[in-house]
Amino acid sequence: MNISPIVASLLVVVLPFSAFVIQAILGRRSVSGNVALMAISLSSILSAGCVFFVVWTGEATLERITWFTIGTKSFSVGILLNKLTVFMQLLVCIIALPVHLYSRAYMKGDDGLHRYWMYLSLFCFAMLGLTISINLLQLYIFWELVGFASYLLIGFWFTRDAAVQANKKAFLINRIGDLGFLIGIALLYAQVGTLDLVELFGKSGFFSTETAVHDSLQLLDKNSAWITCAGLAFLLGAMAKSAQFPLHVWLPDAMEGPTSVSSLIHAATMVAAGIFLLCTVFPLFNETVLLVITGIGTITAFSAAIFALGQYDIKKILAFSTISQLGFMMVGVGIGAWDTAMLHLATHAFFKCLLFLCAGAVIHEMSHVKAHTNLTFDPQDLRNMGGLRHYMPKTFLCMLIGALALSGFPLTAGYLSKDSIVVTAFEWAASHGGSYFIIPAALILVSVLTAFYIGRLVFKTFFGSFSFREHIAAGKPSLHEPPSMMLWPMLFLAACSLFPLFGVQPLAYQQTWIIRGFHVEVDYPAQHAAHLFIPLGLTIGAIVAWTVGWQWYVKQKYPLRVDNSWVQWANRQGYLNELNDTLFVKGTLKLSDLLYAFDRYVVDGLTKLVTWVTQRIAVFAYWVDKHIVDGLVNLSANTTYYIGHLARHVQNGQLQGYMGFALTAVILGILYLIIK
Amino acid sequence: MISITHFLVVSAIIFCIGLYAVLAKRNAIMILVGIELMINAAILNFVAFSRYDKINYGGQVFALFAIVLAAAAVAVGLAIILNVYKYYKTIDPSNINELRD
Predict the structure, then answer these.
(1) Does A560 map to a domain?
(2) Are residues A405 and A536 in the same domain?
(3) Do A531 and A653 belong to one domain?
(4) Cα gap A577→A73, rounded to integer Å
(5) What are the chain A neighbours of B101 within 8 Å (beta carbons)?
(6) Residues A307 and A454 in one domain
(7) Is B97 inside any structural domain?
């Protein structure tokens, strides 16, 4: 086909949007989801065939038109196709496609199905638009759209109070991040005067390392305070979107949405937007910001892994696992090797999507059991599962592949990407020395914890004996494999979670086409021993963790009491929600009470006082005006009047009167003359 | 022996009577009479003082002249009074006060 990459990528974005519009118009008549499915399929084909392969092997290209002009500054809107953007776009398409297929079976019979497809298309449109935006402002708009679509999808079952609370929470916390992003945009614009990604970060952009060569452009001091602030503001934006500690609290709650949504949005695409943003604006960051990013990523990875250990809800474990893996990606960006972050993003997208879809299949079947047996139990609770591998072996196989990939076992994609981050982090620490080794050490520990909690999930779900076995009819069990419409996407993703998709070398991450394609230079030397020992250590750690999990959960040698306070602590997510509740919600309420009282008594009081004083002054002024000013005027007026009145009597028209006066005057004159 | 003082006293009395008539009478004709009295008092003074004239009979001639003038003035005054009466239907000067403010 002779479609230029620009047109093709535009089509990729527009197709889901037209699907959204069509479904919005059709309303309840479009419940099949064919429109959305067709749009995303076409998008995937176009994205892969006409955009990705052309740009990845060829030159970056762009197209922009002037959007609006303020003064002499004009804002452009357009499409930027470089390796990063086309890769991200393809990834979103490839993940969205199986999820769409899966949703057809998973969401079948839901009342609001027409809304579901509409929202899903809207989300795909926003996410795809986000990936290829050329302007940060344009990117911000899509960023907000992604947040909004996610809000709609989390609250899809809006009759459930928990869902409503969850989408509100997600929206509010994302607002914090959006604010950071916006501040970052504003700071950057104030410093540089453009928001165009090419002008900022392109080959001869403001932040390019080759700026010194192009001395026609002004040289920017990356270490200036404002640039640091801008970097931190962008980080805040990414932290909320990519669920980094302490803004991660929305993601576990967002599991209230349909599982297919969780897998698409909260594992593979939306949360990746934050990482993608950081990779896009990577040249902006200086050492300080990068160190903060690394720190945040490590804390996130560690805390989320701990919290994942104590969860019983199958989706919440996966949610915390997502947060933890996003922390890994953050570290990847923070240590300057954002290619490893993108690699992990890609592999994670596949296996986490797979894990969620499998979890969805399990929940789907558990719900069937619940409906058939008329029992009341939580179909998402691990404690109600067990032994499911006998009933749904294919799902078990897929879940196992996903879990192994997440644990980072060799031959899986997760092995490549996780090792790439840990090894690079180790090299980074080795070049910095000293306390920097905390980072790779923490990452290794988190990897082991990851292996343990995902092992726990697999063992508790698929091994042991099923809790409600006696309730299932022996001949025609209500617990069985999910329909093929759900199985095929899972099998596809399971295949993608293995190493061949990423490179022919199963053990060397440097050989993956993603790392080679992005070709990021880091300024610290490679440690060859690390490339050998760290993957080996991680694998051994993972095996040990799985063994311990096997002993604890399958062999029933669980050493801890259920009400162990540490488990409780992890289960309640470190009481972070309670802390937020006390600190921010109650604090805000208290503050507003205080402000109300302040407003009521101090501000209103002042106003009333001023009013009262003004009134008194006005009364006084009235009195002065009436009695003194008017009095003076009236006095002079009346004086003049009375004088005039006196003189008036003389001129009475009486001829004889006049004569009398004349005579008097003459007599007075004579008297004067005599006396003188 | 009648001296000049007697003449002057009589003249002053007549002048005062005339002045009174002018100021106090409620009839324009009586005012005109008062004016005539005052003129005659002055003429009497002319005649009385003519005794000391350097030129003979100067004062008496002036008196005759003044009498003629007074007669003319009375004619004019009566004419005015007649016109006033025609206009106001009264000759009481206190009723004719249109000169006031």
Answers:
(1) yes
(2) yes
(3) no
(4) 44
(5) 648, 651, 653
(6) yes
(7) no
CA distance A115 to A530: 51
Q: Is B73 a domain residue?
A: yes
For chain B, say whether A645 makes contact (Cβ under 8 Å): no
The secondary structure of A486-510 as a DSSP string is HHHHHHHHHHHTBGGGT-S-SS-GG
Question: Do the domain assignments include residue A270?
Answer: no
A69 lies within 8 A of chain B by CB: no
Question: 0.90 cut: is pTM over it?
Answer: no
Distance separating alpha carbons of residues B30 and A503, to the nearest angstrom: 150
Say yes or no for a CB contact (<8 Å) between A659 and B96: no
| Structural domains in chain B (count) | 1
* Closest partner CB to A656 (pick from B23, B98, B100): B23
**A652–B22 CB contact, under 8 Å:** no
State the pLDDT at residue A562.
66
| CATH code of the domain in which B42 resides | 1.10.287.3510
Tokens 């004062």 correspond to what residue? B59
> In terms of pLDDT, which residue wins out, A247 or A624?
A624
In this predicted structure, what is the pLDDT of residue A669? 95
- A486 and A388 within one domain: yes
Of the two residues B27 and A108, the one the predictor is more confident about is B27
Domain boundary among the residues A549, A571, A593 is at A571
Domain assignment present for A656:
yes
CB contact under 8 A, A656 and B31: yes
Mean pLDDT, residues A410-431: 84
Q: How many domains does chain A have?
A: 2
Per DSSP, the three-state class of A377 is coil
Q: By CA distance, what is B27's nearest residue in A?
A: A656
pLDDT above 90 covers a percentage of chain A that reads 8
Q: Strand pairing partners for A61?
A: A81
In a domain, B21, yes or no: yes
- Is A664's Cβ below 8 Å from some Cβ in B? no
Task: Decide if B101 touches A, using CB distance below 8 A.
Answer: yes
The CA-based angle B21-B25-B30, given to 5 degrees, is 70
> Cβ separation of A659 and B99 shorter than 8 Å?
no
Contact A652 B98 (CB under 8 A): no
Choose the closest CB to A648 out of B96, B99, B101: B101
Is the per-residue pLDDT at B9 higher than 90? yes
Q: What is the pLDDT of residue A471?
A: 64
pLDDT tops 70 at residue A423: yes
Are A655 and B99 an interchain contact pair (Cβ–Cβ within 8 Å)?
yes
Residues A526 and A432 placed together within one structural domain of the fold: yes
A647: closest chain B residue by CA: B101
Within 10 angstroms of residue A384's Cβ, the number of other Cβ atoms is 20
pLDDT band (50, 70, 90) for residue A205: low
The answer to whether residue A67 sits within a structural domain is no
pLDDT above 90 for A374: no
Q: Which residues, in sequence order, are CB contacts of A25 under 8 Å at separation 6+?
A: none
For residue A215, pLDDT over 80 is answered with no
B37 — pLDDT class (breaks 50, 70, 90): very high
DSSP codes joined into one string, A210-248: GGGT-TTSPP--TTSHHHHHHHHHHHHHHHHHTT-TTGG
Can you tell me the ipTM of this complex? Answer: 0.81
The residue segments making up the domain with residue A663 are 580-675
Both A350 and A369 in a single domain? yes
Nearest CA in chain A to B24: A656
Q: In this structure, are A387 and A419 located in the same domain?
A: yes
The answer to whether residue A388 scores a pLDDT higher than 80 is no
